[in-house]
Design goal:
homodimer, 191 residues, alpha+beta, four-stranded antiparallel beta sheet, 8 strands, DNA-binding, cNMP-bd_dom (chains A, B)
Chain lengths: 191, 191
Amino acid sequence: MNVYKGILNHIARYVELSESEIKEFISILKTTRVKKRQFIVQPGFVSEYRNYIVEGSVRVFYLDDLGKEHTVIIAIEDWFFTDFYSYIHRTPAEYYAEALEDSLILQMKYEDVEELCSRIHSLSQYFRLFTERSMAYSYKRTISNISKTSEERYWEYVNKYPQIASRVPQYVLASYLGISPESISRIRSRS
Amino acid sequence: MNVYKGILNHIARYVELSESEIKEFISILKTTRVKKRQFIVQPGFVSEYRNYIVEGSVRVFYLDDLGKEHTVIIAIEDWFFTDFYSYIHRTPAEYYAEALEDSLILQMKYEDVEELCSRIHSLSQYFRLFTERSMAYSYKRTISNISKTSEERYWEYVNKYPQIASRVPQYVLASYLGISPESISRIRSRS
DNA sequence: TGTGCGTTAAGAAAAAAGCTTGACCTTTAT
DNA sequence: ATAAAGGTCAAGCTTTTTTCTTAACGCACA
């Protein structure tokens, strides 16, 4: 199936699965279409799934007490997203995951993933390796946030992810980088 | 606290609570902010709360097999809403409650309400009286639906709730009155 | 057998979202 | 002390999305 091509490729970059393992894995995937501005995860409901984007884009953000949004994930094709805390602990989510475009996502339930991972060693390996890599990136981002200026962070992101930067609304990027939209506007006009 | 003013006033229209009763009541209220388009209740999840709107607006609707939406409640400030069946019976909801605007709501859990009502007579009275009044209105609406023409229902609603009619999208009102949006458009142009 | 209302499709109108700019303020690193 | 960096607020502009209207057509039923 074509929709699975991306995610199977993603896995293949880390481990090798047998035909039957691939079949089993595919069997736990739920295909879902969401429309722009639709919430896939929202506060109050448990984030049941790990989500993989086949097509489209999504952001995950937190709404603070002052009503300010803090984007923690900007995801496009071939990326995963979820409210990880909620997903792992089965507690109500505290984040929103919102489609930035009409999107096609693959969803896998916590229990199904756990069950498969407990039986299929290489799949477990895959999630471990991939998650570790994500962690490493996450640290990098934290460091960047505390040590660099707004302008540096902005250009760093734009250079690293030019396709994403031009695809998502500026205020999303702003809330991801911890900069005001106005400042981004000024940074851009300076160049 | 200012956010409680509305709901305490609502209660005061029916019964009188002592200071300590008010305190107890307030202690079971959870303040929640929701964003436009966010679902507060969703099919598949138990509607845990009775919800009171401090600010904003919400609609409750049913999605039929043909994908058509039937709005059963349009609620603004000082109104309550929930999927009542789900709330009372602790079964998965069949309705959506969706914020039409960014809103601030007060939520009270079923168990907490029951517990308080079992101890505080006037609070129990309040919910009884208020619910009875809602029931009476509900019957009225049913009768209106079966005995009046689209046009009559439309004007009836607009006259009774002009603020709401001008505030919510017409297609919501249409799906509440059981009229097509196009017909509403024609009704309006006729006047 | 015409009136009332639904459906579909297209366009117009209105509203919301997104971006920019200026004025002004606060923090912080010289 | 003060300049640079970046935040906030408010206003205005542009673009996109949503909502409303209208026309054409069909069906049911009084």
